[in-house]
Amino acid sequence: MRVLPLLGIAITAPATERLVIPYLSERYPVIFANKDLPKKIDQKTTLTKIDLSDHIYSYFYDLDGDDDDFDPPLVKSAQLTDLCDFLLPKFSSGEASLANYIYQLKGRDYSFSVDSADCS
Fold first, then answer.
1. Residue 21 Cα distances to 10, 25, 118, angstroms
2. Residue 21 pLDDT > 70, yes or no?
3. How far apart (Å, rounded) are the C-alpha atoms in residues 79 and 27?
4. Distance CA 97, CA 82 (A)
5. What is the mean pLDDT of the chain?
6. Three-state SS at 40
7. Contacts for 70-74: CB closer than 8 Å, 24+ residues apart
8. Buried-exposed string 62-95: b where 16+ CB fall within 10 A, e elsewhere
9. Which of 62, 78, 91, 100 could link 116 by a cystine bridge, Cβ 3.0 to 4.6 Å?
10. SS3 of 72, please?
11. What are the residue ranges of helices labelled H in the chain?
């Protein structure tokens, strides 16, 4: 009967990967999204935190560099198509009503928001 505990252990790992982890990541997306942070997005940008509160996603970034002319409206305009591709399913399902993008550069915060009206 020593085979049964080993069989249970062998079944547990695949079941956890296929059933438990997807269920938990769907139910608690922010916890799973933050587990690999901070994450370098490009040479100057690091995603440090993702928050979800009252259907509002907030994405926090640190910017490295000497550029004092960070222009949130320009960044929003340049990234809007990709942001909307990512956010529209969240808006449509009711998971999110707004997404805030907060960038910190040299101790100053810069931000912009995207909602479903931006994506129509």
1. 16, 6, 33
2. no
3. 28
4. 17
5. 80
6. strand
7. 70/103, 70/105, 70/110, 72/101, 72/103, 72/110, 72/111, 72/112, 73/112
8. eeeeeeeebeeeeebeeeeeebbeebeebbeeee
9. 91
10. helix
11. 3-15, 21-27, 29-34, 72-93
**Residue 7: which pLDDT band, with cuts at 50, 70 and 90?**
very low
DSSP 44: S
Structure confidence by residue, pLDDT tens digits, 25-34: 566 566 667 8
Contact 103, 112 (CB under 8 A): no
- Are 96 and 118 in contact by the 8 Å Cβ rule? The answer is no
79: left (phi over 0), alpha (psi -120 to 50) or beta: alpha
Tokens of 66: 């000497």
The residues pairing with 47 across neighbouring beta strands, listed in sequence order, are 39, 61
